[in-house]
Amino acid sequence: IQKKKMVHAVRILRKRPRWWSLIPLIGFMAFAATGATSAALYFLFTKPDVILNKTRNPEPWERVDPSKPQKLITINQQWKPVEELELVKRLTK
């Protein structure tokens, strides 16, 4: 039965050769959609500054660890706290 289906699919492709040019386009679009979806899910589940519920955590940037890199690729990141900013942060709380 599967052999009949395969033969039928080959016949359809032979009858309509104008559709063959769409095969690479469909492949590239599927690749792009998969990449965009996987990147969105990666950032949603691994980055602390991406949120879905604003009422639970209205200021997510306050909980970000500055010593942990937030970019996709970070090369030679050195972080030191700025004394003046830390003082202002303590005074405003």
TrEMBL record:
InterPro entries: B12D
Keyword annotations from UniProtKB, A to Z: Membrane, Transmembrane, Transmembrane helix
Entry annotated with the keyword Membrane: yes
TM stretches of this protein: 21-45
Protein name listed in UniProt: Normal mucosa of esophagus specific 1
Source species of the chain: Stegastes partitus (bicolor damselfish)
Upper lineage: Eukaryota, Metazoa, Chordata, Craniata, Vertebrata
